[in-house]
Amino acid sequence: MTLAPLDVALIGYQDQGNLGMGYLAAAAHVRGHRVEMFDIRDGVDRIVERFEGHSPLVIGFSLIFQAFLPQFRKFALELRAAGIVSHFTMGGHFASLCHEEALAHFPEINSVVRYEGEQTLVELVERVKARADWRNLDGIAYLDAGNVVTNPARALVPDLDSLPFPYRPYEPERMGGLATLPVLASRGCARTCSFCSIHTFYRTAPGKVVRVRKPAKVVEEMLDLERKYGVRVFLFQDDDFPLWKAVGRRWATELAARLHESGLAERAIWKISCRAEYVEPELFAMLRDAGLFLVYMGIESGTEAGLDVLHKQISAERNLEAIETLKRLGIAFGYGFMLFDPSTTFESIRENLHFLRKMVGDGTAGAVFSRMLPYGGTPIRDQLQKEGRLRGDITRPDYVFLDPRINDFHRQLVGLVRPWVHGEGLSYQLSYVVDEFEMICRLVPGVTGGEAYRASLKALTRQSNERLLGLVEHFAESFAAGDPSVPDRDEISDYCETSIARLREVRNQFVAENVYLLRDASEAACPSGPVLAPQVH
Ligand code: B12
Ligand code: SF4
């Protein structure tokens, strides 16, 4: 059967379901437009094939990460070479905040849609469809004879509940065999961390920065996802889950009450990201009883100087207190931590390692850390530029440290700790398996061997963390003292590989012991057939 040609094709990364594209597609659908979403990794040929001989009116690129800009441009040029004549547009944080740079590096694009794109995309498609002039639309920028034209920014969506639920034409990803999908309860963040593009994105556009959905609508969407896809694990992707002050507590109390009323509190679990100062024992005990199982926090630094440079507006002690509270309440946690920021010294590295030991030395989560990167549109990037310390380019925004020895130290350390802290490194695998176990404990009653498994995971994580943190500490000390020797890379790789093999063994044994229970839970969760907890490979 040949379908009508597409009005809009949205192209981007679809990991964990891309909510930005889902919201855009839904907004265009309700206005009667034919929209499909494509993962850029499908490649030009497969995507063009799915256009069935017709160029869509508009192709919208969703640039979630600025480093992908050259890849998106190459992709667009290949589409053109394949005869696609659509209007090309692009949106996302970088495109919105640095539209001039985006247009300079991708001059073939017809327009950029800035900030929240639902309304602007719909109007753009309608103009293109009617062969009307789109150049005077609010919310866009474009090149006119090489000059950037920036139209007035469009106001943020005032009422998030006025938006249709995101379009999700895909199978949910699975953890422990259980279906998971992302949801949003709010957009925006009231804080002003110097390295973050989220607050600048929402503050630069006119309108209220933080907007929160009604708990009833959030639960309605969750029930809808449970019914359609058997979702048991909801990942809230809010920039900062709305728990701030009395108003946040009231909102959370209503959400919890509605989750209990609907029965979801007993059938489903959920994860949030939030600031550490919201983590109060009573509030979080209530949220845990309504299904909260995992909290991600941007801890970022264990030194007051680092927290200051990053403008986190919180103390290291308060961050630790939040972690301790979560541990006591039995809620799993993940965190972001920037061992390297523009203020880094050997002394701050030492203090940060001490902090990480306090936080995860007991093996409750894998030790992870990164280097702060100066993304486009962030205050710290502007500051570094003023100081003449900004380096790199769009794909690799970077800066130099004040102590030049840290530049060399960082470069060497990155190679050494890669087996732990790259995307599939040991620390992340440990945390993944710990989170998966927490999910299983909450959703699959009656598993056997759980306590022994938990103890093994904790012991493996503790050993790994100690090895990693010890390595960084010794290397930093000897490097600072002028010792040129570097730890043995092969030994490190062997250690991480052996630990991953051991983790796999322990995990697969637990799965094998509980195979029927897990299969039943997965079958109940998935209307389209059972999916067993995958083995760790
Ligand atoms: C969920 C999330 C993820 C998820 C899911 C990603 C996905 N496929 O959607 C995962 C965990 C996979 C992820 C991974 C990464 N992420 Co991420 N992620 C987020 C997060 C927290 C929420 C995204 C979201 O759903 N927002 C809600 C929707 C509704 O908003 P939106 O995406 O902005 O879309 C709206 C507008 O931007 C606009 N728009 C967007 N695209 C388009 C396209 C068109 C055509 C139009 C018209 C409009 C438009 O309209 C949308 C609707 O209003 C954001 C922070 C944030 N607030 O956006 C970071 C964020 C986008 N991630 C970020 C980063 C760095 C990454 C990683 C590179 C991390 C890493 N080191 O691996 C990877 C890259 C992965 C990839 N392959 O793309 C950065 C990007 C920084 C930058 N300036 O480039 C952000 C901004 C967080 C931050 N401040 O550090 N991420
Ligand atoms: S890092 Fe988190 S708390 Fe800070 S501004 Fe960004 S979203 Fe808000």
**Percentage of residues in helical conformation:** 40-55%
The assigned CATH architecture of the largest domain is: Alpha-Beta Horseshoe
Q: Got a strand count? A: 18
Radius of gyration based on Cα positions = 24 Å
Give the overall silhouette: globular
Bound molecules: cobalamin, iron/sulfur cluster
Largest sheet descriptor: 7 strands, mixed
User: How are the strands ordered across the major sheet?
Assistant: 2-1-3-4-5-6-7
Q: How many structural domains are formed by the residues?
A: 2
Task: Give the end-to-end Cα distance, rounded to a whole number of Å.
Answer: 40 Å
- Spans of at least 5 consecutive residues whose pLDDT stays below 50 are 527-537
Given this structure, which CATH class of the largest domain is correct? Answer: Alpha Beta
Task: Return the average pLDDT rounded to an integer.
Answer: 94
CATH overall fold name of the largest domain: pyruvate-formate lyase- activating enzyme
The chain-level structural class is alpha/beta
Give the DSSP E fraction (strand runs of 2 or more residues): 5-15%
Output the number of helix runs. Answer: 20
**CATH homologous superfamily designation of the largest domain:** tm_1862 like domain
